[in-house]
Amino acid sequence: LQKVGADIVVFPERDMGVRLAHTLLSRSIIDEIQLSTEYSIFELQAPTQFLDRSLKDLQLRQRAALTVLAVRRGTGVVVSPDASFVVEPGDILVALGQPEKLDKLGD
């Protein structure tokens, strides 16, 4: 396709396969946008071990190279939550990172 002038070649089967694999490997991933072969932005249902703890206390960046960009809470969104933000039941974290490193959060 690139030889005939296509700027971007899309492989939907491969892309969906990768998304499905990440979802199956981490049941808490709700949705994912792949930015590169390594990094994605994804929605993550807050696991029970996150509840009632601050982002600072969770040390997501240090433990799993995960950056929380926003949190969906009810019908609202908290954009760029600070370190004192406390995760509550039902929160959905919108994060940037490597989905395969999510297993490190169980440590």
Sheet with most strands: strand arrangement: 1-2-5-3-4
* Chain-averaged pLDDT: 80
Counting DSSP H or I runs of 4 or more residues, the number of helices is 3
CATH arch. level architecture: 2-Layer Sandwich
Radius of gyration: 16 Å
Q: Segments where pLDDT lies below 50 for 5+ residues?
A: none
Termini separation comes to 45 Å
Which superfamily, in CATH terms, is the homologous superfamily?
Answer: Regulator of K+ conductance, C-terminal domain
Helix proportion range:
10-25%
The secondary-structure element order is HEEHHEEE
Number of strands: 5
CATH class: Alpha Beta
Q: What is the CATH fold-level name?
A: Alpha-Beta Plaits
> What structural category arises from helix and sheet content?
alpha+beta
Any chance you could write out the topology, listing elements then pairs?
Layout: H1 12-25, E1 29-34, E2 40-45, H2 55-58, H3 60-64, E3 67-73, E4 76-79, E5 92-97
Antiparallel strand pairs: 1-2, 2-5, 3-4, 3-5
What would your notes on this structure say?
The protein is an alpha+beta fold and 107 residues long. The protein has a single domain, classed as Alpha-Beta Plaits. The protein contains three helices and five strands; from the N terminus they run αββααβββ. The protein is elongated, with a radius of gyration of 16 Å.
